[in-house]
């Protein structure tokens, strides 16, 4: 087996990468043990082999046959480890060979572009937004759940859609985003259908699908 240069390859040659290094073989089926050993990860039984699939990953057993795809990407990650760590990415199950995984790797696995944000779900506090330098600790108790969301969300003013960057806004900042009449107040329609007037300098985290209306002071909403 040897490293393969160039983007194309003849029929019968199977290209794959392990930790970003390209290799080639004429064998369409390789046991996990052989794939590790032939790419320098010896002893194989001290390593974990992970195969990247479409938007997910899975571990490969040492005696498990790997069927390489001739015209598709065959991407693997190998690491010296004695256990497998599990997490979900956009509700797809994933496995990993080390205790941490970085935000860039998560984007690669999930094919998540920069127009979306990544969040680590939390049950007892606000979900954590992940930045390019952040790593998720997979060794903590339980399975970590990670999801992507669009950077822009859609809210409605008088039933007309407006795309805004997600985040926390003051009442005045929101009013500046809408063509609200001079001197009018801004109302938020709650999930119960109630209209609540936002107070001056009140801070609100906008969510996708929120509805806002204007209201004349002392009058009804419009």
Describe the structure.
It is a single chain. By secondary structure, the protein is mostly beta strands. It has two domains: 14-150, no CATH class; 152-215, Ubiquitin-like (UB roll), CATH 3.10.20. The chain contains three helices and 21 strands. It is elongated and about 80 Å long. The chain starts with 13 loop residues before the first strand and ends in a 7-residue tail after the last strand. Residues 1-10 have low confidence and may be disordered.
Describe this protein with a few key phrases:
Ubiquitin-like (UB roll); mainly beta; about 220 residues; 21 strands; single chain; five-stranded mixed β-sheet; disordered N terminus
The gist of it:
With 222 residues, the protein is mostly beta strands. The chain has helices at residues 32-38, 103-110, 171-177; strands at 14-18, 21-25, 29-31, 47-53, 56-60, 65-67, 75-80, 85-89, 92-96, 100-102, 116-120, 128-130, 135-137, 144-150, 152-157, 160-165, 168-170, 185-189, 195-197, 203-205, 211-215.
């Amino acid at each position: 087996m040897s490293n393969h240069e160039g983007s194309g390859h003849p029929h019968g040659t199977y290209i794959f990468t392990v930790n970003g290094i390209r290799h080639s073989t004429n064998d369409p089926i390789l046991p996990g043990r052989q794939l590790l050993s032939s790419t320098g990860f010896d002893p194989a039984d001290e390593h974990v082999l992970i195969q990247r699939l479409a938007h997910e990953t899975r571990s490969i057993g040492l005696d498990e046959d790997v069927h390489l795809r001739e015209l598709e990407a065959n991407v693997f990650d190998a690491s010296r480890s004695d256990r497998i760590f599990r997490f979900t990415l956009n509700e797809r199950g994933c496995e990993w060979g080390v205790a941490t995984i970085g935000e860039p790797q998560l984007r690669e696995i999930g094919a998540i572009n920069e127009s979306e944000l990544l969040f680590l779900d939390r049950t007892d506090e606000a979900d954590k937004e992940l930045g390019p330098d952040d790593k998720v600790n997979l060794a903590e108790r339980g399975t970590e759940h990670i999801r992507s969301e669009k950077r822009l969300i859609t809210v409605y003013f008088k039933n007309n859609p407006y795309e805004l960057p997600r985040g926390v806004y003051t009442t005045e900042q929101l009013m500046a985003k809408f063509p609200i009449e001079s001197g009018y107040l801004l109302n938020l329609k709650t999930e119960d259908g109630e209209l609540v007037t936002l107070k001056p300098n009140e801070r609100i985290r906008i969510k996708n699908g929120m509805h806002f209306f204007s209201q004349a002071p002392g009058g009804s909403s419009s």
